[in-house]
Amino acid sequence: MANSRSDVGGEAEWIKRCQAGDGEAFAPLVEAYQRRIFHLVFHLVRRREDVEDIVQDIFMKAFAAISSYNFQSSFGTWLNRIAVNHCYDYLRRRRSSRISYFWEMSEEGQRGIESTARSREPGGLSNEDRLALNDLTSKLLGRAPAEDRVILTLKEIEEKSVEEIAEILGLKSSTVKVRLHRARKRMVKDLKKWQEGR
């Protein structure tokens, strides 16, 4: 049995067996993609305590929908689409109960982000500075609207191309570019707003 997702023939065989009713053939697909989906979900949701349950839900959805997979896109892209849609729904449900932007945070939270930003030294980034910058970016991204978080995570963290993002989200490449531009602008505006408010 193949155990690598690079073995496209083996992967196609597992998928066909699943579509024919062999539930056990889904296990190698889970094994091949679990780490990638876990990574994607973690960056989208940013709630470690929920990630495992969400990943499990995504694979259950994929298993239930496997008969609809038609081999027109790669299985990874199809699975990413299910994962992104599931996470997007999760984020929308949580939106009303979470802090959306920096200026809505508690004073303690604001001080934490500000001290992280101030710890950066001009003239190159040390490991500590890089960690601080990543932390600041992570916090800002974690408070962005769901639509912005999804598209920025796919582009900046998952390093997907515009074309791959378009395929995952079912959008035109030009629409992805516009949404990326707007999401980046909103994040910069959010950052400037709290800097000016100090």
Tag the structure with descriptive keywords.
mainly alpha, Arc Repressor Mutant, subunit A, single chain, 72% helix, Rna Polymerase Sigma Factor, Chain: A, disordered N terminus, 198 residues, 2 domains, elongated
At CATH's second level, what is the architecture of the largest domain? Orthogonal Bundle
CATH topology of the largest domain: Arc Repressor Mutant, subunit A
Helix content: over 70%
How does the helix and strand content classify structurally? mainly alpha
CATH class of the largest domain: Mainly Alpha
Query: Termini, distance in Å?
Result: 60 Å
Order of helices and strands: HHHHHHHHH
Description:
Helices cover 72% and strands 0% of the residues. With 198 residues, the chain is mainly α. It folds into two domains: 1-98, Orthogonal Bundle (Rna Polymerase Sigma Factor, Chain: A); 99-198, Arc Repressor Mutant, subunit A, CATH 1.10.10.10.
Which helices and strands occur, and which strands form pairs?
Elements (H helix, E strand, L loop, with lengths): L7 H12 L6 H20 L2 H18 L9 H20 L12 H12 L8 H16 L3 H12 L4 H8 L3 H24 L2
Helix pairs in contact: 2-3, 2-4, 3-4, 4-8, 7-9, 8-9
Structure, briefly:
It is built from 9 helices and no strands. The protein has 198 residues and is mainly α.
